[in-house]
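Duplicate of #3305? Posting structure anyway:
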């Protein structure tokens, strides 16, 4: 795609100044003082102070989905079988989530992780978040072909992009595409012209998951675990099946690596993990 190269290149954006990032950074450095380089897994708690809705909290995404679509459990909307049945409705709902992501700001936790990268302490950052906020603080996105040295691996995709399941072309979400999705109309791929473009967001039991996160990511994870001295889990409650699955994969692959489960870090007296 035309802007594919910029998608995976280092974004030279001015880092937002965030009160509290030094405190968070110092806490992370204390945890990892004797560990050398390390891998970070981050979840929705990292973006809780950024303006993004969390999934399972009161008035969160699951509850809003349940009310909007009159379904028993809001998590169903984020499943591939439901997407197949009501593709346009799901795309419209995701367009609202994109609006949140676009107006959100990086948290002190994002800034602290980026500072760890600058200090040479970060082997790789694996995020379960789809808000793209790691890019905002200067951490470029990993891709197995286009940017294999990228520091952030978006395990569940990025709400700011659409992808074609047929040819795997990726496009940044544009105004016309947003308008089409809000109108519950299909979006055609500009490369292969199939009208299957979807948000680049991983769903539960996703049959098209390879166009969101290629299997190569797990080979990269094995290499990173072999090179790292510790694994940090930041902003993850382990209440979702995906996070527990990744935790099991890491435990199987760590060997002698020490794993720190970061359940609570304090930022100005508030928990962001």
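Output from current build:
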């Amino acid at each position: 795609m035309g802007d594919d190269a910029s998608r995976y290149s280092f974004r030279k954006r001015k880092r937002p100044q965030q009160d509290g990032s030094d405190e968070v950074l110092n806490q992370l450095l204390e945890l990892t003082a004797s560990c050398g380089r390390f891998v970070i897994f981050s979840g929705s708690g990292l973006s809780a102070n950024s303006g993004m809705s969390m999934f399972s909290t009161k008035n969160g995404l699951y509850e809003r989905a349940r009310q909007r679509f009159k379904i028993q459990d809001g998590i169903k909307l984020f499943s591939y079988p439901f997407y197949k049945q009501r593709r346009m409705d799901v795309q419209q709902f995701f367009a609202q989530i994109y609006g949140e992501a676009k107006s959100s700001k990086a948290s002190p936790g994002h800034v602290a992780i980026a500072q760890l990268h600058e200090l040479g302490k970060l082997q790789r950052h694996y995020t379960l978040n789809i808000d793209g906020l790691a890019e905002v603080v200067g951490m470029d996105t990993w891709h197995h072909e286009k940017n294999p040295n990228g520091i952030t691996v978006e395990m569940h995709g990025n709400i700011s992009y659409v992808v074609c399941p047929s040819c795997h072309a990726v496009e940044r979400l544009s105004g016309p595409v947003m308008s089409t999705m809000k109108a519950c109309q299909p979006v055609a791929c500009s490369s292969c012209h199939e009208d299957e473009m979807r948000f680049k967001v991983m769903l539960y039991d996703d049959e098209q998951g390879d166009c969101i996160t290629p299997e190569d990511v797990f080979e990269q994870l094995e290499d990173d675990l072999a090179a790292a001295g510790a694994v940090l889990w930041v902003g993850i409650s382990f209440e979702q099946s995906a996070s527990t699955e990744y935790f099991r994969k890491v435990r199987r692959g760590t060997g002698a690596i020490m794993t720190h489960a970061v359940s609570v870090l304090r930022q100005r007296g508030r928990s962001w993990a």
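Confirmed duplicate; merging threads. Confidence is low (pLDDT under 50) at residues 1-18, 260-273. The longest strand covers residues 157-163.
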